[in-house]
Write a structure and sequence with these properties.
single chain; alpha/beta; Urease, subunit C, domain 1; TIM Barrel; binds zinc ion
């Protein structure tokens, strides 16, 4: 049985937007799309769902980098009296360590569950989620989200690292729900030994596992890799008991350092990428790796803005992520888009930003053939906005990357089924 979904505006992303558009769905897949008149004539026996004159029908958004287990972080920090904004990047890391160390581990599961709900409520259909408390992965078993769940690991002690890798290997054989693929997240070059990074990249290559790594986020990271000095060596290492494990200077910036360890590869989703130059952008493009930009998190931590012009010139696939609620005020990619529109003013057009949040993000998570656009044989994944005041078709892209869209998400369909989600009372999504 075919179903015809009608909306005032149909935004396929993969083609031109239409006023009076229709999407035709059969068995969880898109079979046709076009004008309401043409689709009604071509599919006369289809059931019809009309979302109304105030509606926009478009692909779900992709949050290519987040840590949903930290959704309750603001409450956890407040309970410890940690109210003020962090003074810098290292101050923020130290705060996360303090707050996480004081938690009962089972709190992560409820936090992750609320994070999944907040994503769905904001029209997000796929995530690149990082998980450190691995038992919480059970929360994903019945969740409808697509994407990748990257198991986080870090550390400098060789015996501990070997043990972690054995544990990760066992877990990464699991199949969670068919929609979400497991991968590995070597956290970042400054908190794993070079040897452990190499063994993780080697393991992922041999087992065909996707990877994600925080890379080139702060000036402190660059200083540490070049000279084993600066705030990471002087403040972070002593606090976590690594004072005696300080590595010799690598004398490399983050991108070449990762490349030398075997981690600059197509299936390593690089996160942040703020501290990169034009040559490094070209190296990332040659490797075929995608980069997730998290501009609100970068602003919160005062680490700067990614050089989007260099990335565009090099042809790097750019996606968008919210990072966690430890460094952001919502998990909505709509909010991230609105911020990115202002932050990258004049450097990224509204359509480019929309692509980052849909088809580019889907490609970065290995979902490009199924999600992120509307075309026959792609999955019937879409969201519906109901808007108080819609602009003309020519102004629609600018409208979509303006503030206020999160609250207008009215429905989310994944594989042709409407996703129902209930937020806990008091749960803030926008
Ligand atoms: Zn992150």
């Amino acid at each position: 049985m075919d179903t015809l979904y009608l909306a005032r505006y149909l935004v396929p992303i993969s083609g031109v937007s239409l006023e009076g558009g229709a999407l035709v769905v059969r068995h969880g897949q898109i079979v046709d799309l076009g004008s309401k008149k043409a689709m009604t004539a071509a599919h006369p026996r289809a059931a019809v769902v009309d979302f109304g004159d105030d509606s926009v029908l478009l692909p779900p958004l992709v949050n290519a980098h987040t840590h949903l287990e930290l959704t309750h972080f603001p409450q956890w920090a407040a309970q410890r009296g940690e109210h003020s904004a962090p003074s810098d990047f290292i101050d923020w890391i130290l705060r996360i360590i303090r707050v996480k160390r004081a938690l009962a581990p089972d709190l992560f599961a409820a936090s992750l569950r609320d994070g999944i709900r907040a994503c769905l409520a904001a029209g997000t259909g796929a995530v690149g989620d990082i998980l450190s408390w691995l038992p919480a992965r059970d929360q994903y078993r019945n969740a409808p989200l697509y994407g990748r769940l990257y198991l986080e690991t870090l550390g400098l002690d060789p015996a501990g690292n070997r043990q972690m890798l054995r544990g990760l290997g066992k877990i990464s054989d699991e199949c969670l729900a068919g929609r979400l693929r497991l991968g590995l997240a070597p956290h970042s070059p400054y908190n794993l030994s070079g040897e452990y990074l190499e063994s993780l990249f080697d393991y992922a290559r041999r087992h065909g596992l996707p990877l994600s790594t925080h890379l080139a986020e702060s000036a402190a990271e660059v200083e540490f890799l070049l000279g084993s000095k600066g705030p990471i060596a002087e403040r972070l290492y002593p606090l976590v008991g690594w004072r005696d494990m300080l590595p010799p200077p690598a004398r490399r910036r983050p991108v070449p350092y990762l490349a030398e360890r075997g981690g600059l590869v197509a299936d390593n989703l690089l996160v942040h990428g703020v501290q990169v130059d034009a040559d490094e952008c070209r190296a990332i493009a040659r490797a075929g790796a995608s980069v997730v930009l998290c501009p609100r998190s970068n602003r919160h931590l005062g680490v700067g803005l990614a050089p989007v012009e260099s990335y565009r010139k090099a042809g790097v696939n750019l996606a968008l992520g919210t990072d966690s609620l430890a460094s952001n005020d919502s998990l909505s990619v709509w909010d991230e888009l609105a911020f990115a529109r202002r932050a990258f003013s004049g450097r990224l057009a509204p359509r480019e930003l929309l692509c980052m949040a849909t088809c580019n993000g889907a490609r970065a998570l290995g979902l490009g053939a199924d999600m992120g656009g509307f075309a026959p044989r792609m999955g019937a994944h879409f969201q519906v906005l109901r808007c108080a005041a819609l602009p003309s078709l020519g102004e629609l892209d600018e409208f979509l990357v303006s503030p206020g869209r999160t609250a207008e998400v009215r429905a989310l369909y994944l594989a042709g089924r409407e996703v129902h989600f209930a937020l806990d009372p008091g749960m803030k999504v926008c």
